[in-house]
Design goal:
102 residues; alpha+beta; 3-stranded antiparallel β-sheet; 2 helices; 19% helix
Length: 102
């Protein structure tokens, strides 16, 4: 089950559970689409992988126990420990390699 983090780890923008602007890597690092494109250049600053849109959990349980109401999203805000300059420097080194080849 995804953690569904409530914010962008870079700019701290709120990313509600049904946000279409939330992007995640395979480790669930969560960033907004603007930071992914403009700062990170599709390179996760933690694992070096790429990003995909975060799935949206269903609001209605169409199967027993499977909805956002049964597995609530996280309320713990997460922030990157790196400065914007460090993020850009890391991305610049990795961005030319396709995510599937990293």
């Amino acid at each position: 089950m995804l953690e569904i983090r409530p914010n962008c780890e870079c700019c701290d923008k709120d990313l509600v559970p049904d946000s279409t602007e939330a992007m995640i890597c395979t480790y669930e690092c969560t960033f907004c689409v603007t930071c992914v494109n403009e700062i990170l250049e599709n390179v996760c600053p933690n694992c070096g992988g790429g990003f995909v849109p975060r799935p949206i959990q269903p609001k209605m349980a169409r199967r027993i126990g499977l909805s956002i109401n049964h597995q609530p999203p996280s309320i713990e805000r997460v922030h990157t420990k790196y400065s914007i300059e460090e993020l850009k420097e890391f991305s610049a080194k990795v961005k030319h390699t396709k995510p599937e080849d990293r």
